[in-house]
Amino acid sequence: MTILGRERWPIWEEAYESIEILQDIFSEESDDRTHTAVLKIYKDYIDNVFSAIDKGKKIIYGNFAVPGTLMRGFDTEKIFWYQLEALPVIQSLVGEPGVWNAKLADAAEASGIAPEICSVDRIAHGSYVEGIVPMPDVGFYLTTPCDSQTCLVNNMVALTKKPTIVLDMPYSAEPEQIRYVARQFREVIAFLEDALSVEFDFDRLRRACEIYNEMIEMVADWAELRRIIPASQPCETLSIMAAVVTVFSGHQNGVDYAQATLQEHKEFIEKGYKAVEGDEVRAIWYGDPFWSDLNFYNWLEKECKVTVPMDMFGFFNAQYLIDSTTEEGMLEGIAYNALRNFPMTKQLLGSAEDYLSDYRTLCKLYQADFGIIPGHLGCTHAWGMSGLVREESERLNIPLLEFEFDMLDPRINPRDNVEILIKNYVDDIVVPLKNSW
Amino acid sequence: MLTCSIVENAFSKEPSHGDKLKLAKGVEIMKKILDRIRKFEKERFMDSRQDVEDMKPFLAGISQDENSFLHDAKSSGKKIIGYFCSYMPLELFHAAGVVPYRIRGIPGRDIGPGTTYLSSRICTFCRNVLTLAIEGDFFFLDGLVGCNTCDQVRRTCQNWIIKKPPEFTDFIHTPRVYRKGNVMHYADQILHLKDNLEGWLGKKIHDDDLRDACATYNRARNVLRQLSDLRKGESPSISGAEMITLGIAYHQMPVDSFIAAAEDLLEKRRASPRSTGQTRVILCGSLLDEPEYVSFIEAQEFDVVAEPICFGQRSYWDDVDLYQDPLTAIAERSLTHFPCARIGDSFPARWERTYRIYKDYHAEGIIFQRLKFCQLWGVDVHNMSPHCYEHDIPLLQLEREYGFISTGQLKTRLQAFKELIKDRNDSMP
To answer: Fewest Cβ atoms nearer than 10 Å: which of A68, A247, A396, B82?
Structure first.
């Protein structure tokens, strides 16, 4: 297997091969726009990684919260922004997480990383230690969304010994904090211009902001459609949306995916498709997606009659469109979105009330029959809300299921175990309660 | 049997009044046993030095249940504010006329309620503290100021404020990066806190009050540095366990009382150098506020000659610049002091200072300890290891839970580490 005509690191080649196989499968199903679109953009992304290496572009390391839209202000012919979590996520979605993720997480632990660190960050670290990712010229990181990410940043600063800039992301998103982040964006621009001898162009940024707005409006329309009962589009789509929006914000691929997903959803509604045969049970998935095995969501719908109309990662809001008329408007708009319209950061970085109010909103908007807190092991700021969210759920009179798992490492709590937990909970608690209403 | 019958009853019906009384009595007995263990641990590490008298004010200052300093402060009408982190502006609290009290748990206490709210995936320090908060042990606090120290402490504060809010609560954002712009932002945050404190207390906090407070805290930090420096020579006249006790007392006593007692101690200890000939180590890593733990290490024939942790040198190594605008100077000192792992790109600076301390204090090894589930300190050993290897520094990593219990396993590991250092020293030309 080659990528762009050359042999590459096996993990990338395997993922690439999987994408090509899946593309063959899904190309025969004409109405499956979502899979077709996501596979295309993953393939493009891998092509871009190796094209950047082949062309000798300057590589910027970043963590996943770095706003893609901001990075589009640089000339992408000269630089490539590599998200450290890209490989673990792509690998999980199309590869064999039980093999590669496990191996890379173990490599990180063997090098001295504590096992309590989020697996996303351990796997990203393991990828660097194993030398299977492009090497950076500079680093640009944010201190969000969690402590594990700060650990990864500290590691990368120590390991790469490359010029680095780290942005401080505040706890709340008051106007003062937005301006604070926007000012730091200016520092980043100056730093990268200087370190890489490239120019930042605000006209390019303007175009990226317009693309971002276009994407986020479509995502919001799609989120609105997901409120309709019965659910028509499979919930697997939900878990992919976050991965796409975070990597491709401000990029045409993001718009293409959002458009395909929205279009597919509209068509499914028109055709009267139902995600679940018979009466559906609606759950709010309030935490990290089941990325180590997306087929899990299909099981959920088929065997359990449970549909997930919305989750924490897919809940984007169109009220935070970026004002692209001025430089400050753009920077502050990107800052606002980074703080309040970004998976995890929005719910987990700030106050307890932010977390609880989103849970309330999702349960009400999407008419949840029950809530699921998938307790990703390394997600301490979500674990720290365990008791309060249970109390909130009681107030809402919505049963809540909480369990431990790992979103990327299937060894922690295998899918079979999770399935039994959910099936029993739905059969014994949720359905009887729902029938009694 | 007592517990079993209560549990059975709990499943079958509401516990009876008698059961509740039995349970309360059981808890009381447990408390007494724990108090006895704690007292024994304190006496043991102090007795070994025959310095109980010198340390009495500080032991009183860190006592969770007999803190006469806090009692006196309350009696004189002063308010007490709890806080968590070495990045907090203590000088502002002092200038406002309130006593800052750094939150500690009670090691060994049952942490059920804290675990209920925070889950078992959060560190035992946070669970311990939240338990105490929920059960009313922090009744003496008039206020609580939280900050985003780490995700776990942030959530602990938020749970506390929701479940059992004291009279005054505030939460400030403490930057996790150091650049000029971050300092100005933090100064603004402190200014907001100052405004809120003024509103609560009904009085203005003037710049002169702030300058005086900065000078006072600089003086406290200076005496701590001098006490710590007593360990630089061959004959350390103060132990690591005592220095940790002082570090805690600095955070929990009214600072003026602390300075008076610490200066007195410095005078006495200067006059009484002693030689132990034990293996010299420095103690790094996450939060550690249990002198018993350090005492146990020293009981294995180590001298802990420095402890760059947040109750140790990280707190008192740097001063506030008295010639700047006070709020900016406090913010600057907070963000530039010996960095915690919570700072985003801090490892190079942390290692540079740690290594300097290692050399200055003539240490022979580094013990790195970390609370289980503490993520921020979960990667520092990975980053330290190559440096230790390069400089031929023996490194021991210990994981622990809050609430020290001396164990054979820990003893064995410490003794093995001592052997390793001895072999290394013997093989050196």
So the answer is: A396
